[in-house]
Request: fold
Amino acid sequence: MPLTDAAPIVTRRVAIPESWTLRAYLDSGGYVGLRKALTMAPEAITQEVLTSNLLGRGGAGFEAGKKWSMLRKAEPVYLVVNGDESEPATFKDHMLLETDPHQILEGVLICAYAVGAARAFIYVRGEFALGQERLTAAVNEAYEYGAVGRDIFGSGFSVDVVVHPGAGAYICGEETALIESLEGKRGFPRIKPPFFPAAVGLYGAPTVVNNVETMSNLPWIIEHGGAAFAALGLGRSTGTRIFSLSGHVNRPGNYEVEMAKVTFRDLVENPRLGGGIRNGNELKAFIPGGVSAPWFGPEQVDMALDQDAVGKAGSMLGSGSVVVMDHTTCAVRAVWRITRFFHRESCGQCTPCREGSGWLEKVMRRIEEGAGREEDLELLLDVCDNIAPGLGWPPQQTTICVLGPSIPSSIKSGVNMFRDEFLTHVKEGACPYG
Amino acid sequence: MADTTSQTDTVTITVDGEPMAARPGEMVIAAAERGGVYIPRFCYHPRMRPVGMCRMCLVEVKGPRGFALQPACFIPVADGQEVVTRSAKVKKAQDGVLEFLLVNHPLDCPVCDKGGECPLQDQTLAYGPGETRFVEEKRHWAKPISLSALVYLDRERCIQCDRCTRFADEVAGDPLIEFKGRGDHIEIATFPDQPFASYFSGNTVQICPVGALLSRPYRFKARPWDVEQVESTCTMCAVGCRVAVQSSGSELTRYIGLDSDPVNHGWLCDKGRYSYEYVNSEERLSHPLVRKAGELVEASWGEALEAAARGLQGARAVHGAASLAVLGGARLPNEDAYAWAKLAKGVLGTDNVDAQLGDGLPAEAVLGLPRATIDDACSAPAVVLLAPDLKEELPVLYLRLRAAAVAGGVPFLELTPRRTGMSKYCRTSLAYRPGEAPALARALVDGISGSEVAGVPAASVAAARELLGAEGAVVVLGRPSLAEPGESIAAAAAVLAGGLPGVRFLPALRRGNVLGALDMGLAPGLLPGRVALADGRAWFAGAWGAVPEARGLDAADILGAAAQGRIQGLVLLGADPVADFPDHQLARAALSSAGFVVSVDTFLTESSGQADVVLPAAAFAERAGTTTNLEGRITRLGQKIVPPGVARPDWMIAAELAFHLGGDLGVESLEDIWQEVERLAPSHAGITRSLLADRDHRDGVVAPFDGRVPTTSRPPAEAATATGVGSTTAVPGAVDPMSTPGVDAVETHGLPATEVAPAETAPSGGIDPGPEGEERQVGAAVATSAAPPMLAWSSEHGPQSPPPLDGYALRLVSGRSLYDQGTLVQHAPSLAALAAPPRLRANPYDLERLGMGQGGQVRVRSNRATFLADAVPDAGVPRGSVWLPFNAGEGSAGEVVDAAAPVTDLRVETP
Ligand SMILES: Cc1cc2nc3c(=O)[nH]c(=O)nc-3n(C[C@H](O)[C@H](O)[C@H](O)COP(=O)(O)O)c2cc1C
Ligand code: SF4
Ligand code: SF4
Ligand code: SF4
Ligand code: FES
Reply:
């Protein structure tokens, strides 16, 4: 029972056998959008994307068309596609890379044409061996087919596409670290300003960085028009979006649903979606948009999957991953594990994140292991405050990139929402969940 | 580089409510500092690209969405920008960063070299929280580990500021250290099997804001509070880097580079930095020695001076003043060089005087060509290198020029018989056949009709000519190879001087004060002040009593004459011709045939060991005075310790020897000497001691002095005057502790405070009693009628052109490496260990012809000597040429070079 009438867009081919091949892609209407795009003026494409109000699917949710329009006027322009997907519990790009690489590629070509990119780079997470293989195969097929390379489909437009493997660093998903990595350097994020990719990006050239899922929407938008996309969803949250649902639900997985018209409760409980919480357990809390996002409690479960609504409530849809925790979850342990992730993935460039992540992890582990002190709670919050002053949302930061100020999200959620549970750990000198 | 921004080209920012003028393009941290607001920092260094990593400099900057924390080192100033450095929010951020930095910091201050001069300690006191709230286990590493022979790393103390790595890559061009790992497990690391063997590695220790990088020679040697310091100038080479000389008790403990805007930007090379070890050496000469029954035995000063005087007088009485010669002096301070020039020319009466040892250029060319400064070169429309490998011989000049090429976009053109450290930064590097530099220079000026000249294809010459289009090129001029005569290079320079409009020259001569010694007249045919003997005879005869009649011999001719028994009295001023003169055979023959030899030196060398009288001289930091760098820049030397035993400054030795010779130099102090120099030497008119002591002239004064007060763009911290880093508002000490940790409140560049003011001589242009009581005018602004003109040099008569190379021979190219068998290096244990054994380098093609493509042992044969050498293929040596290092031990070029020949050809054979 679909929740809305909206048909899936980016996942519409996942059930087709060998959906990743050119044959299957062409049989299901592939490269129609690109052919159409090549007959249009590049500005007209950008206009369609502006009309669609397609929001970036990588985390920040910035309007794709607006990003393209902000490019500094200079030659050359590069297109960089972010397939580094490493946020814990986010696995949608992974699926798109393996099941529908041609759709990504078609989107890349449309975008490259629209912004006049001299070359496009698709940066794929190092661990996605199959995704890399299929995407590379798709690029090779597309070259042969005439969709990539010189004089695409006889249009006179040429662009080369390069698939670049990551090497196991979450931080290389941050767009400027990704650019450094592409340039062959350490994955250290650059300071913005001045290094906004649209102004000074890859090799110093104006650069568009967009997510794999963002790209995957483009063929449909060009084929059906931006207005058709904008007709889906509500307000600024248009179209459909994949949500990676994980945690204590009966049916974890990727679900593409219409934005803003579906609630978290739908996502968790609808039998075609999450199918409810395991063992009929109670919902304790959920993370609405990846581990960088502050947590929500049961009282927010009826909120729609609407970027602005979630933002106003103090969190974000982020990378589109929803993590469900039932009442058997130890909040302290959950916070510790998330903090440990950031500790391991901090690039180490800036002092507050490099040292703060380790410090916070050590304190969290100590509390979880029963050696916590009551004053540790204030300490945790104050150390967090030194990374993200004010602990507000969206966070302020003393760091270069937003990995640093993402660390406090789970800690402040844990301490504020489950203070008693933290104190129990301290008082009992052990984890009550065993 | 010189500051070219004009005063009107400014924007106004507001810092803590106070408006401040700022230069467009500069960062808030720099503008605020100049305006008197010090923003704390760790990673920012005024001489390197900002990275914004440590986050210590966070301040609030108003943007479109209100005030936000921004790194002051990474935010460029903008007109109307509002900056707040003292809010509660800023304070909390600073507290936070310091607390974070201490989280994994071992705090083993009591056993840390940096303790007491540590920016982390200091800034924690000034800005940090009272105590740490960190109770967890800290990160642990094995410590320390060795990055190179000179640098140790304590990874636990590293705060990941990226200063060392940035320096290595950006400033030194030796990217041999890098971050490894991520997060709080980042460590500084070298690449596998590649130590941090950079000639500039010591700078990383200097700028490390904590005790993570340690100098092996300094480790555990001293505590900052036991150390005294004085400002001085390094004289290990002629770049003249400014240093703070530190000592503990009577021992030198360390040199720290000071930021001189026109010269060294705070950097030192490792040879200069660790050269203090030779001063401390146990083997220093501490007592006079006199040869008795064939042995050198200790003697009193009186006895030794008497012996020296008798020997020299005896020679003069029998063979005439022309049988006397004075060699060396290029490492003496100006005052000492002047005293010896006066002694030689005025008292001994000989013009056979040469501060250079045949390894430089004809003195008239050096002094008579229009001169350029380092800044001139760094902002020239084009720079021509006709010089030795600057990375090996004048390291910090190499740093400056490299930066001009890489970051400044200055086009470099190199004329060289062999690839050098600068080659890869040159737009064009023309490899000429040894001995044929003049022909190539001629082709650059006039173009060529044939297909090649001096081994360089016509197309390359044409490309190079295009680079030289604009007026005002600077030629860096030195000896590209010791196996071709200086006259050949001077001839090439003459062609460039005549053919390139507006060209100026920056001499690339090596020994510390060689330019000063030449200025002081330690060269044949010259008198102090860049005056030709003929022009200055009357002037100096009046002042000195007498000057020689005719031009004397230069080093090569002195040694040649000595070998033939025509030099009966030879004085060596810190000179070791057997090691330094390019033709060792001739030098040895000369020393054994010179009738009577007096050596004034700091060590017993192969040459001074053969002397009849050896007089122990004071070394660097044991005497004051002034020195002159390759630009002609005069700076003050600081005295910090006393000489060993009864060793004395050279000028005193000259003055006393004059008495023993029945003469009188008429000087009793350095002040006397300098006053006389300023009065008599036209190139030094107006450069009074008080001028040199003036803080406006802290970077020295370039002779001749044009009367201008420099408007330097020196890093603001150094121009500031208050002390302490007590709070955000306090202006830092005389030196920014963060740009040069370890130096604070450096004493007024080498002068005792009492000497700084008042001015000790009449103001420039005033009336001063002249020598012998006559009245005359002196000073920069006033042209004196009596003073002789300064030399202007041009020469069009070319040198001998080299004979054609026969098909079986290879033509020799030679030069020095930074760490060689030189006396000073060899007496500095840390440096001596770095000297490499000599290797023969030849083009792979030529070695292939011998069937030795991979290199290996070869036999080297010349008409002088035959020896075995280790050969390595090196594409940087052109076909038909062969490289042997100079003064690198047995099997060096000195064994085979023939000083009389225009080139030296060798046979290289399988053994
Ligand atoms: C620490 C960090 C990790 C990120 N990882 C990813 C990622 O794996 N994939 C991604 O698309 N965006 C990631 N982003 C967001 C990117 O910086 C960038 O905003 C995004 O790729 C832009 O694409 P979009 O506008 O299409 O969303 C990350 C951001 C941060 C701060
Ligand atoms: S916030 Fe963390 S991950 Fe981001 S640049 Fe700083 S240290 Fe690196
Ligand atoms: S070793 Fe010193 S200079 Fe290098 S990064 Fe660490 S703290 Fe900075
Ligand atoms: S470059 Fe020359 S003057 Fe400078 S530190 Fe090195 S030896 Fe001394
Ligand atoms: S971030 Fe500005 S000094 Fe380090």
